[in-house]
Amino acid sequence: MAQLFSGRSASGSLASARMTDVPAHPDTAAMQQALVEASTAAAHGDVPVGAVVVIDGRVVASAHNERQRSNDPTAHAEILALRDAAHRVGSWRLTTATLVVTLEPCPMCAGALVAARVRRLVYGADDPKAGACGSLYNICADPRLNHELEVTPGVLAEQSSVLLREFFAERRSGSDGGGEDR
Ligand SMILES: [Zn+2]
User: Fold this and answer.
1) Which residues are tagged catalytic?
2) How much distance in Å is there from the Cα of 160 to the middle of ligand 1?
3) Cα(83)–Cα(86) distance, rounded to whole angstroms?
4) CA-CA distance, 166 to 161, in Å (whole number)?
5) 84's torsion region: left (phi>0), alpha (psi -120 to 50) or beta?
6) How far is the CA of 111 from the centre of ligand 1 (A)?
7) Model's pTM, two decimal places?
């Protein structure tokens, strides 16, 4: 897949719909929920990333990044949402699930998607610094691994980017001057 940039919106979802043969609208609706989750992360100082898991057209789990709040390096939105979905379904195997996340997953989360046998990944903004679903690596579509996912990038990417930019701009203007990693 060609390198894609953050900030595509209307044309991006049309292209995605053609690629995956899935109507853009359900992805967009799920992404709206993921964006709401993302915005709540900033309230406790966490980088605003949100994720939801959709099975049979229903959101079965939603979570946001809690690394800072929980002092847990693995508490990314995707991991928390996958855990919650697996508990709810009663199986670690999420073969009919779609994970919808506002930012391109990192290597850890992309690995978790493969481990959970998730069917599809829908994400918003590309992450050129840590993205493992096309930017730096392509863990979701590597034939050497035992599972591959359909990937639809760029859904409501601009909204996701705006949240992240505002968060980092605010943090830079604060006293701690933290870095830009998630
Ligand atoms: Zn991650």
Assistant:
1) 78
2) 15
3) 5
4) 8
5) alpha
6) 9
7) 0.83
